[in-house]
Amino acid sequence: MSHEATPNEADHSAPAPVFDATSKAASFLIAAIAVIAGLVMGWVNPFMSKSASSQGTMIDTLFSIVLGITTVVFVIVQGFLIYSIVRFGRQPGDDEDGPPIRGNTKLEIIWTAVPAITIVIIGLLSYRVLADIERPQPGERLIEVKAFQYAWQFYYPEADVTATELHVALDEPVLLKMRSNDVIHSFWVPAFRIKKDVMPDRVTEARITGTELGTYPIVCAELCGAGHAVMRSQVVVQSDADFKAWLATAAAAKKAPQPAATADPIAYGRQLFTQYACDACHTLDDANAHGQIGPNLNGIGSRAANRVSGQPAEAYLRTSILKPGEYIVEGYPDAMPKDYGLRMSDAEVHALVTYLLGQK
Fold first, then answer.
1. 273 closest CA partner among 181, 143, 164
2. What is the pLDDT of residues 30-52, one digit of tens each?
3. Class of the 259-357 domain?
4. Does domain 141-255 have CATH number 2.60.40.420?
5. How far apart are CA 89 and CA 173, in angstroms?
6. Quick one: which of 3, 38, 234, 339 has the fewest CB in 10 Å?
7. Inter-axis angle of helices 346-357 and 313-322, to 10 degrees?
């Protein structure tokens, strides 16, 4: 026995083709837009400023490739999603269930294989870039980096020079051997695209080659304590002649008589205040220091004698430097490094105390 099919039954038994001429045209249009958008984004790369190192150039190239690929994927996915909503979305007043559609094995194989191949390609490219930026270079200069709460120190072994900012010659490969004096830090130069953890229990290495003259910030990218936000320095990329002149001047200054032995011990104390990164945590107008982690030291020479009953000003300041946990000013964290007694000579401690006593 048979009966006449209703309109709904007729519709369900013979659904409209999904991949008809209109869908094919839309697919080609979406694919074309995706490819063009991927090429533009990969070429322009609006998210990155120009790199200042050869390592950064390689990393930026990899980033641009990945950005182009992800742009293509994004446009394709969103394009087909929007097209499907517009063309095949439920019409007003249609409360019927949609027709049952079985999966498409060929399509599933394609959308599984293509992403897998893409990920493998990106992985291989990433490994190649990593191997290139970590490969030893002939004639590279060794610079030892020391991190401590909350400053950086850079030591040039061949000239026996220590500095609080990193100077490198243009286009000269540099090997950084880094170690922390206390907790885990992270050496990050955004303009060089280089970031490497600096740890107290091992030496880590990074290689940089500055390709653009200029000054670029160094940031600690690992939360290392109360003064983490002010743990900054800079890389100065100079011409070869300027770098050699700077290194020679720094070496000569180290061999010259220190200001403490001259008629200006205050200048020497001010130098030590900056050299040992006291300015990272303290405010002191005379030293152009604006740190907010530790107590304000303006006028400390007048206040020191009243800090601890029976404690002379000189003794109070000396103890505060060598054993900072002894006296904690209310409202401030116990964040001062505990190793100044190991890093500073008696003459340096005396000069720094004398300088602070002079801040009336």
1. 164
2. 999 999 999 999 999 888 888 99
3. mainly alpha
4. yes
5. 59
6. 3
7. 130
